[in-house]
Amino acid sequence: MGLGNYFKDIKAGLTSAFEGMSISLASLFVRPVTVQYPDVDVKSDEAMRENYNGPLRGMPDNYRGLLDVDLEICISCKLCEKACPIDCILIEDVKIDKKQIVGRNGKSTMKMKSPIQFDIDNSKCMFCGLCVDPCPTGAIVHTNEFEFNRSDRSQLISRFVKADDRAQLKVRGAEIAIEDAKAKAEKAAKKKAEAEAKAKEEEEASKDQSEAKGTKE
Amino acid sequence: MKSLVNHFEDGIILTNVDYALGLGRAHSLWYMLFGLACCGIEMMQTGGPRTDLDRFGAVPRATPRQSDLMIVAGTVTLKMAERVKLLYGQMAEPRYVISMGSCSNSGGLFQCGYSVLNGVDKVIPVDVYLPGCPPRPEALASAIIDVQKKVVREPHLRKNV
Amino acid sequence: MDILIQTIGDIINADLGSPLAAFIALLLVSLAILGFMSLTAGGLSFIERRVAGRMQSRIGPNRVGPQGILQFMADGLKCAQKEDLIPDGADRLLFKLAPVLCFIGVFGTFAVLPWGNGFFASELNVGLLYLMSVTSLVVIGMLMAGWSSNNKWSLLGGMRSAAQMVSYEIPVALSLLPVILLCGSLSFKELIGAQGAMPWDWNILNSPFTFISFFIFFLAALAEGNRTPFDIPEGESELVAGYCTEYSGLRFVFFFFAEWANLYVIGAVAAAVFLGGGHLPFGLESDIVSLLVFFAKSFFMVFIIIWLRWTLPRFRVDQMMTLCWKTLIPLSFVMLFGQAITLLIYHELTFLQSIVSLVLFAICVLVGVKFVSRVLVNIKEQKYKMMHTLTGS
User: Fold this and answer.
1) Domains and CATH numbers, chain B
2) Cβ–Cβ < 8 Å for A127, A142
3) pLDDT tens by residue, A56-112
């Protein structure tokens, strides 16, 4: 029994080594699957097919790469900031002149505010996509960009609002704020006046009523 | 060789010698087998058939003495941070570090955890930060290409002013 | 290179009276061998990485120079620039000596290795014996490296490599004995001269005993060269990098050189002793051609070693020692006695030898055909898998 197993083992060892060697030799004659990355564009399936002829596929359309924000249609609702589980989005906004915008989903919305600071810290971001879902206009989206290497951590933050735009928006925002304050004050004054007038009327009415009551009595 | 480093003035010959030496260093970045978390899996995959880091002359080495590149792949806990520092100290000069993934860049998802180091750059100097959670294999390859560019530009023999 | 060695050999013969000329000639020979050894070791490291890549469906280094052929130069340049680290607790003298010893152990073997049918750096009449004994220096180097590093992984790796190499030297020597018995010489020149051009005239096919001896020699030489499946002294999964854990820069390159040059030594010894040296049939034989044939045979053996490395998994320590002491050594003794008896029988019945050789040759061809057919089947299978499973369509 022991001796039989001994020879059986030897036979199994030899045949498996034989088969293994034939498999590894065969793979020398089969094309490697390697995607030669810097020479081959892997960002989409079609782009990859241009320079690569193998079984692997490029990145899918719904790949969650770096975030991109379309500031034209961002209404600064800050839903993404709230949704982010690691607080890597920072938004500050000002009021702007109202305008009608059409979101990525086709719905048109009134844009009242615009961000003057929209920072995404890519060193923290975990590319989960939770900020993309609640966006009402589809302003924040994942691209299939993945090369964002920096030699300094502070450069990893993507700042979407440019400095010029920010200054302009700030100036205009201040003006709007003043106008708004003016309008508010006017409105408040008007309201006050109205209220006063109403109060007067009511007073008079109650006077009349009491008088009428008095006369009745 | 050590006695020659940072020893000479600028000159056309030395610039070319430096360039050649830099090419040698850049195309033989042996990285240390050093995966800390999920990015480690992606790092192994990068050495695999699809991206094949071996194309750039980067092969894994098990010991820090023979490796030139440390890929900090994953969450650096406070306990591991000491080891990371020790391993970095054990690597022979010239040495380079890639901080791979959000966790080692800044603590990432776990930045508020009581046991997590917020960024590996608090313990060792980092050459390239690579965002991603985890970065895809091609992204790690691009980081290695970035390190190569940096290495080639580096004056090794000339005085670093 | 061959011309260089020949002319320098002539100079030695001519001006042996003048010690200076002899010294210069020897220096030139050793420099030429050093150059050859460096190129072989570097080239083999590149070939190994490419072959490994292709066997794993990768490409391997292809960015430095045309198709990455200068990869080993980049590695060498890099290693030369690395900081030379010596650990605090290390024994400095032994730490520095160890890589040199390893290197000398392998470099010394090149002195007697044949370069074809007629070319030798030095033609020693006890060439094989010298080769076996000089290789033992490598063991001392590795043990020294392991011990002087003052690192437990290094020490374990060094101990393992010492145990392994000392054990496996015995089957290597014993498996060479049947051939020595057959040819009646230890000199490489006579060992090659005793063989013919056709495969059935080679020592390997002389009798079933030399045939099995060849495999014993091959396995044991693999283990002595620390190659997979016997590379436990540097097994990354158990010991960090074995005996060379603490070595960096150029000192590591010496170990690296020794390992890859040893690969060529194994191939060359196998080609010279068992596979008929540089002989070529049909009257095509000449000095230069024999050189090429010899290199082709050696590098084919090296390719088989590389191929084995990327196919088979690593042995466990106890399995490896069991294989050596309980299987290979008794078996090689049996082969020695068998060959001795066979020689007696051949002496009486001369026609028997050619029949046995032809039968063995036929068996080899049959196994080869079977193997090639399996390879073809596997190629088809892998291509099918590549087209249909990976795309998911």
Assistant:
1) 31-151 (3.40.50.12280)
2) yes
3) 778 888 888 888 888 888 888 888 888 888 888 888 888 888 888 888 878 888 888
Task: Check residue B132 and give its pLDDT.
Answer: 85
Tokens of C344: 């007696």
Question: Which residues of chain B lie closer than 8 angstroms to A149, CB-CB?
Answer: 128-131, 139, 142-143, 146
Cβ atoms C253, C289 nearer than 8 A: no
CB contact under 8 A, B102 and A126: yes
SS3 at position A97:
strand
C38-41: which pairs have CB atoms within 8 A and are 24 or more residues apart? C38/C257, C40/C260, C40/C261, C40/C264, C41/C72, C41/C256, C41/C257, C41/C259, C41/C260, C41/C261, C41/C264
Look-up of token digits 């004050």: A185
The string of DSSP letters for C100-132 reads HHHHHHHHHHTTT-BSSSS-BSS--TTHHHHHH
Q: Which residues contact A62 (CB under 8 A, 6 or more apart)?
A: A142
Whether residue A19 and residue C391 make contact (CB cut-off 8 A), yes or no, is no
Contact B42, C245 (CB under 8 A): no
B108, A128 in Cβ contact below 8 A? no
Domains in chain C: boundaries: 92-348, 350-393
Cα dihedral across residues C148, C150, C155, C157: positive or negative: negative
Please give the Cα distance from A149 to A165 (Å, whole number): 26
Identify the sign of the CA torsion C59, C65, C69, C72. negative
Cβ neighbors of C318 (< 8 A, separation 6 or more) are none
Residue pLDDT, tens place only, B18-60: 888 888 888 888 888 788 888 888 888 888 888 888 888 888 8
> Which chain A residues have a beta carbon less than 8 Å from that of B106?
121, 123-124, 153
- Considering only CB atoms, C59 lies closest to which of B1, B27, B52, namely B52
**Residue C190: pLDDT over 90:** no
**H or E stretch including C312?**
none
How far is C387 from C382, CA to CA, in rounded Å?
9
- Record the pTM: 0.83
Please check whether residue B148 is in contact with residue B58, taking contact to mean a CB–CB distance below 8 angstroms: no
Q: Is A49 helix (H, G, I), strand (E, B) or coil?
A: helix
Q: Does C53 touch chain A (CB under 8 A)?
A: yes
In the predicted model, what is the mean pLDDT of chain C? 82
- How far apart CA C37 and CA A8 sit, in angstroms, is 43
Note the pLDDT of residue C2. 44
The secondary structure of A99-163 as a DSSP string is EEEE-TTS-EEEEEEEEEEEEEETTT-----TTTTT-SS--EEE-S-----BSSGGGGEEE-S-H
Residue A13 touches chain C, beta carbons under 8 Å: no
* Pairwise CB contact (< 8 Å): C61 & B54: yes
Q: Which of C57, C63, C80 has the CB atom closest to B27's CB atom?
A: C63
φ, ψ for residue C128, nearest 5 deg: -65, -40
Q: Which of B119, B136, B143 sits opposite A149 (nearest CB)?
A: B143
Q: What is the pLDDT of residue C372?
A: 92
The answer to whether residues B22 and B31 touch, using CB atoms and an 8 Å cutoff, is no
Residue A216 has pLDDT above 70, yes or no: no
Residue of chain C nearest A38, judged by CA positions: C63
Closest partner CB to C53 (pick from B54, B62, B93): B54
Across the range B132-139, mean pLDDT stands at 87
> Is there a contact between A69 and A131 (Cβ–Cβ < 8 Å)?
no
Q: What is the Cα–Cα distance from C8 to C219, expressed in whole angstroms?
A: 36
For residues A27 and A29, what is the distance between their CA atoms, to the nearest angstrom? Answer: 5
Helix (H) or strand (E) holding C278: none
Residue A185 phi, psi dihedral angles, 5° rounding: -60, -45
